[in-house]
């Protein structure tokens, strides 16, 4: 019997997550979303509630948080943990994930993404389409690694980072928590916490408050 799953968040990211959900294992039963009307449809599935608190019996389901914004995704993650709900990870069948990598809970690994040996991926992380996470990289919790990003060997990405599409991070660098790397950037030195960098090579743009 397939496991019953509810997605939290009925936006664009939910489309990718649903496409990568293993339908042999999981049955999507609907979405929780506080913007779309209750009982309306998203991707052919019903909006069942506007919050986990208003969804009963919530204990009968497993959950995936399909929200792209790191802070909003963290808020839902914490709420589910407080309620002792089971949070699943979704790994697309086309992704290449080393048996020597570690993957946390609630994490998404999209189509044709690569996670190589010794990589450690935290909880509630998005690794999007065609992203490359090289050997020994560590991505902490609640991060978003966008499409076609390359993290070379032994990069450390701390909590709540956003790394834009097609950016490249040189090996052995540290990306500070709550930092943002712009799309197409080439990062050749450490990025301080709470900063936004962009360009080739990447340079400080402003603080990320």
Automatic annotation (TrEMBL):
It holds the Pfam family GMPPB_C. Transmembrane segments: none annotated. Keywords: Acyltransferase, Repeat, Transferase. GO terms for molecular function: acyltransferase activity. Substrate binds at residue 68. Residues 4-79 form the PglD N-terminal domain. Signal peptide: none annotated. InterPro entries: AcTrfase_PglD-like, GMPPB_C, Hexapep_transf_CS, PglD_N, Trans_hexapeptide_repeat, Trimer_LpxA-like_sf. It comes from the Bacteria. Residues 108-208 form the Mannose-1-phosphate guanyltransferase C-terminal domain. Belongs to the transferase hexapeptide repeat family. NCBIfam families: NeuD_NnaD. This is Sialic acid O-acetyltransferase NeuD family sugar O-acyltransferase. It comes from Simonsiella muelleri ATCC 29453.
């Amino acid at each position: 019997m397939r496991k019953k799953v509810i997605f939290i968040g009925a936006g664009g990211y939910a489309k990718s997550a649903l496409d990568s959900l293993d339908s042999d294992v999981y049955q999507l039963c609907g979405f929780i979303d506080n913007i779309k009307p209750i009982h309306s449809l998203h991707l052919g599935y019903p909006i069942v509630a506007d919050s986990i608190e208003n969804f009963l019996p919530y204990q009968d389901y497993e959950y995936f948080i399909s929200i792209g914004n790191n802070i909003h995704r963290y808020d839902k993650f914490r709420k589910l943990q407080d309620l002792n709900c089971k949070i699943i990870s979704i790994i697309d069948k086309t992704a290449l994930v080393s048996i020597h990598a570690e993957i946390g809970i609630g994490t998404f690994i999209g189509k044709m993404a690569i996670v190589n040996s010794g990589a450690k991926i935290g909880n509630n992380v998005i690794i999007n389409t065609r992203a490359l996470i090289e050997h020994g990289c560590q991505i902490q919790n609640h991060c978003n690694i966008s499409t076609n990003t390359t993290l070379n060997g032994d990069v450390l990405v701390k909590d709540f980072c956003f790394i834009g599409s097609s950016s490249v991070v040189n090996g052995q660098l540290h990306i500070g928590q709550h930092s943002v790397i712009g799309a197409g950037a080439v990062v050749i030195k450490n990025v301080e916490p709470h900063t936004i960098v962009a360009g080739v090579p990447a340079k400080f743009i402003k603080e990320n408050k």
